[in-house]
Amino acid sequence: MQRFEYHVVPAPRRGEKARGVKTTEERFALALSTLMNQLGAEGWDYVRADALPCDERAGFTGTKTTFQNVLVFRRPLRALGADVPEQPAMRLFNPEPAAAGPKLGPAETPIGPAPAVGPAKGVAAE
Questions:
Q1: How far apart, in Å, are the Cα atoms of 24 and each of 10, 14, 27, 91?
Q2: pTM for the structure as a whole
């Protein structure tokens, strides 16, 4: 079965200026194609664009929902025995299980009564 790794990036919000690119649509298309070509050169295939909800703080106690536009890319994983470079983003979504700590036995009962607590010795009261 083919397995993939995914890479999600925010969609560009502004166009790029370049010679011969004059309209807003052309500038935005240039920014988008530049980003897609960069990721394509790294082996990423474009999958889709999504607008996903994101809860943000508004004021001291409120929240508001905004929508974030993202681009989804994927590329095939190598065979299971091959080394796959792990990226920081991948660790966020695939955390390694925590190492099991030592097993603790039952708590021991105290040997005798606790010492009495009183004023410190050798300190003059003012």
A1: 19, 9, 5, 37
A2: 0.57
Element spanning 6, H or E: strand 4-10
Three state DSSP letters for 34-101: HHHHHHHHCCCEEEEEEEEEEEEEECCCEEEEEEEEEEEEEEECCCCCCCCCCCHHHHHHCCCCCCCC
Structure tokens of 112?
């005798």
C-alpha to C-alpha distance for 87 and 82, rounded to whole angstroms = 16
- The radius of gyration of the chain from alpha carbons, rounded to an integer in Å, stands at 29
Distance CA(58)–CA(52), nearest Å, equals: 18
Residue range 64-121, pLDDT digits in tens: 999 999 999 999 987 655 555 555 554 445 455 555 666 666 666 666 676 677 676 6
N-terminal to C-terminal alpha carbon distance within the chain? 81
